[in-house]
Amino acid sequence: MERPAWAPQGIDISVPSVSRMYDFYLGGSHNFEVDREAARKAMEFMPGLPKIMQANRAFMRRAVRYALGEGISQFLDIGSGIPTFGNVHEVAQGIAPEARVAYVDHDPVAVAHSQAVLEGNSGAVIATADLRRPQEIRDNPEISKLLDFDRPVALLLVAVLHFIEDTDDPHMAVAELRDILAPGSLIIITHASYEGVPLTQDEAGGAVGVYKNIRNPLVMRARDEVGRFFDGYEMVEPGLVPMPHWHPDTPVVQANEDPYAFSGFAGVGRKA
Predict the structure, then answer these.
(1) Percentage of residues of the chain with pLDDT beyond 70
(2) What is the CATH number of domain 50-199+218-271?
(3) CA-CA distance, 61 to 58, in Å (whole number)?
(4) Domain segments of the chain as ranges
(5) Distances from the Cα of 186 to the Cαs of 77, 147, 157, 226, 236, in angstroms?
(6) What Rg do the C-alpha atoms of the chain give, in angstroms?
(7) HSE-CB for 79 with a 13 A CA cutoff
């Protein structure tokens, strides 16, 4: 397999990457055949995966605009993946050029490509760190130089928490991140769930199995489990809802017209 110029040395391009699979679902070009093969396998069980990812990305953009409308111009996007069109810095800086965006990922491909995309952008950085070690994120010099944690920050955990297994205590990690944030900060979350998926759990479980086989277990959590990530925050209306229902830009289609888009949950909370 030929290594493209954007793929950093030292990564195994024969192993599927969740970040590159996500890029493929969104129609991006920074993925390899091994990623496409894994993504297509998952889609055999859950054909609407691209619809879910598109709804996820659309929610993220609306949430960023909401944060700006609330006077927040600092963003910390953890598990940011490979930047594609309409990513956080493009949305935020397109509205407020002074906005600052710190991306965090532990995938070397995501980090390398982000560095290329962000070159020359003094208001955005990419840092290598792991959500499971929040203090490393807080202490990262690139992040602490860009973001002022004494002022409100919008923390994005979009399509990432469902890749953290219970044994790694994701709720504790999110609580530690909350303690870093100033009052008035926002937390922005999406999370996968069997709830809302237009398939039986056994059928959807086939797609979950694909992620397990590539050593990126996908943890489908129930609504109350996802809700616990917002402990210590006041939920912004309409609360924890299917992604299309959160502050829609246009009239929401019915779930029976586009059922996959209503899979999983999204919400925004404000730290008091």
Answers:
(1) 94
(2) 3.40.50.150
(3) 5
(4) 50-199+218-271
(5) 12, 14, 11, 16, 9
(6) 18
(7) 23
DSSP character at residue 168: G
Contact criterion met (CB below 8 Å) for 135 and 102: no
Please list the ranges in the chain whose pLDDT falls under 70.
Answer: 1-10, 253, 255-256
Contacts of 2 (CB under 8 A, 6+ apart): none
Helices 18-25, 108-118: crossing angle, 10 deg rounding: 60
Taking the C-alpha atoms of 23, 113, 14 and 49 in order, what is their torsion angle to the nearest 10 degrees? Answer: -10
| Cβ atoms 140, 127 nearer than 8 A | yes
- The predicted-structure confidence for 171-193, as pLDDT tens digits, reads as follows 999 999 999 999 999 999 999 99
3-class SS at 246? coil
Helix (H, G, I), strand (E, B) or coil at 156: strand
